[in-house]
Design goal:
The protein is an alpha+beta fold and 226 residues long. The protein has two domains: 6-72, Phosphorylase Kinase, domain 1, CATH 3.30.200; 76-222, Aminoglycoside phosphotransferase (APH), C-terminal lobe (Aminoglycoside 3'-phosphotransferase, Chain: A, domain 2), CATH 3.90.1200.10. It has seven helices and eleven strands. A hairpin with a 4-residue loop joins strand 4 and strand 5. The radius of gyration is 18 Å and the shape is globular. It starts with 5 loop residues before the first strand and ends with a helix. The protein binds adenosine-5'-diphosphate and magnesium ion.
């Protein structure tokens, strides 16, 4: 990409990298500055390979030395905010979880090869957005790797459960609906999700202020029929 002037319009909420909406040559695009070149290259590879077929941003350019990726901007709401909002009806949240299952089946199917299944990694609600026509898009692929689809499924369920409001009954139901939709759309066997959700929650419990509460909830998940 040739050197261009740009104007920063917005900084997105992010924990790992610096992600900004910028105006460049009259177009709004997203500029993501990574902490590591490897992570940048990993994400770029997934975007390049998948952007024609999957709902993921189109890579527009890369600056390896500056550890920066430019990609298409999708005007959207963050899925984490939608699921946790008290003003969004449960019916809409259920539909979102079914669409999310469909997105995940598409991703796993597309990146399945003789070497295994490429999982998206870092499967949290905040790494998904809902566009103006209510389509789900996935973002943030720097942690993609070969793995088990159940790891992504459990990542999403633990993120549904451990974001505020935490562990409500309706959230447990959202997770079940999501897993059922994934199973029926993929036709694949899905095993041990509750054990992986437990593991993910326990890992987070060790890092969070509310670790004691999370541990208690994690233990209650172990006996659920996920
Ligand atoms: N292409 C995009 N279009 C619209 N919003 C985006 C786009 N890329 C990132 N975002 C927003 O920026 C946030 C952070 O981006 P992300 O790639 O997840 O960075 P990080 O690796 O720091 O988590 C996302 O949660 C999303 O809300
Ligand atoms: Mg992210």
């Amino acid at each position: 990409m040739k050197k261009n002037r740009f104007v920063i319009k917005k900084t997105f909420k992010s924990k790992k990298n610096k992600v900004k909406l910028v105006l460049m040559e009259k177009s709004l695009i997203v500029m993501k500055q990574f902490n590591s070149k490897n992570m940048l290259e990993g994400e770029y590879k997934i975007l390049r390979r998948g952007c024609e077929r999957l709902n993921i941003p189109k890579p527009l350019g890369i600056n390896i030395e500056g550890k920066t990726l430019f990609m298409s901007y999708i005007p959207s709401k963050n899925l984490c905010d939608v699921i946790n909002s008290s003003s969004v009806p449960l019916k809409v949240k259920n539909e979102c979880m079914e669409k999310l299952a469909s997105w995940l089946v598409d991703f796993h199917s597309y990146f399945k090869s003789s070497e295994g299944v490429m999982i998206r990694g870092d499967s949290i609600l905040r790494n998904f957005i809902l566009d103006e026509e209510n389509n789900i898009w996935g973002l943030d692929f720097e942690e993609s790797r070969y793995g088990m689809p159940e790891e992504d499924i459990a990542g999403i369920c633990s993120s549904v459960l451990d974001t505020n409001p935490m562990f409500t009954n309706w959230k447990v139901e959202l997770c079940k609906r999501f897993i059922d939709a994934y199973k029926s759309l993929s036709g694949w066997e899905v095993k041990n999700v509750n054990k992986l959700v437990f593991k993910a929650l326990m890992e987070k419990a060790g890092r969070r202020k509310n670790g004691v509460v999370l541990t208690k909830f994690a233990k209650s998940i172990e006996n659920l029929d996920f």
